[in-house]
């Protein structure tokens, strides 16, 4: 089809006939459960990131998020809608894992969140923050990696 220009992330059509046909043919779920699978696939993923705990700056970065960005975002709205600020993932040690219920594309395009987006980009570029899905943060917590270990990822 023809490429369209969208102003808002919510306006994006998240449906594709070829995609639907492909997954229907896979028989991953029953025909009755298929609409629920498709709806789940359409759900927007939050922005997740973790602070690199082995870095000297880890605590300072966490405190900057807590003391500067969370209060600012609490007071910010986009198109009249309040924004839930980022929050630590309760199961991630030392409050170094975070979740922001804003899709990555919306975070990138929002002028209201540009300072926070720039912060994430800069800290990611220097290795202080890694952006990854929350489920990908789980396995390393169970590896019990020690300073004498080498880890290939």
What would you say this structure looks like, in words?
- The chain has 153 residues and is an alpha+beta fold.
- The chain is built from 6 helices and 6 strands.
- It has helices spanning 17-26, 34-42, 58-74, 104-109, 114-125, 134-143; strands spanning 47-51, 77-78, 81-82, 87-88, 97-100, 129-131.
- The strands form 2 sheets. A 4-stranded antiparallel β-sheet has the order 4-5-1-6.
- The radius of gyration is 19 Å and the shape is globular.
- The model has no long low-confidence stretch (mean pLDDT 87).
Total number of β-strand segments? 6
The helix tally amounts to 6
Widest sheet: strand order? 4-5-1-6
Low-confidence stretches: none
Distance separating the two termini:
38 Å
Report helical residue fraction: 40-55%
* Mean pLDDT over the full residue set: 87
Q: How does the helix and strand content classify structurally?
A: alpha+beta
Cα shape: globular
As a percent range, the share of strand residues is 5-15%
